[in-house]
Amino acid sequence: MKKQKNKYVITIVGTTAIGKTALGVELAKYFNCDIVSADSRQFFKEMTIGTAVPTKEELATVKHHFIQNLSIFDSYSVGNYEKDALQKIKELHKTNNVVILLGGSGLYVDAVLNGLDYFPKVNPKIREQLKKELVQDGIEVLQNKLKKIDVVAYNTIQISNPQRLIRALEISIGTGKAYSSYLNKNKKKERKFNTIKIGLTAPREIIYKRINQRVDIMMDRGLLEEAKKLHQYKTLNALQTVGYKELFSYFEKEITLEFAIEEIKKNTRRFAKRQVTWFKRDKKITWFDYLKDQKKIIAFITNLSIL
Q1: What pTM was estimated for this model as a whole?
Q2: What is the pLDDT of residue 117?
Q3: Which domains, ranges and CATH numbers included, belong to the chain?
């Protein structure tokens, strides 16, 4: 597939709370273009505070796509997103040569830029058995099972999400090969656009400090009340995510509120560690310190392209 020389997707990646949205908005203002979100947590309109969606000011300044466009009751896969996002990028490229792709969900970013990985079909009975184990034994048993048979997947996928955890296990068990061994191979097709990948980074202690601060801010802004409204739907896949699960445990009197907040911080830090592991595999990402002057990042991008 021949690429269109003057069409670009500028991708901004990095851990949660690193400043991707702020940079994305500045780049979009400079290039007078739209932002396509690749943050799977921000798709759902019922989840606002706990997913750190862009502020009303940011949304008003730059047009964002795939922000709170779904309901937690909708069935939506990464395959659906790949198709929808590519269609949106194609549409946006008709009037602007640049689109910003923004997000920390590595799987969703990869789906847009490279296509989804190919996995062989496996016996569906394996999935059914894993679902039974999840109900009977709990998620930690399955997490430990994955750690034993595929530590790479254990350290990169969102193991707190039962759907993704079971997917990795069923492939590993059903094929006899690690789930991670299928990643980044046999991609479906090249894209018509050119890709520039920008990563934001910071020392680990800074990332962790920013995460802790963000959680405190979320609680001040009403995360507890938001989670309370969603508690009755806790089994939905969209809610199998950090920031909500811990508060659900508090509502069920399994833990104290103070402990739940600390668990949110701890699990978000673990999630950030997995994000780092995922994105560091991609040697085409150019990394900048999170405090880097945004004008210098813009200069780097314009020097790389014909923009």
Answers
A1: 0.86
A2: 79
A3: 8-116+187-304 (3.40.50.300), 124-182 (1.10.20.140)
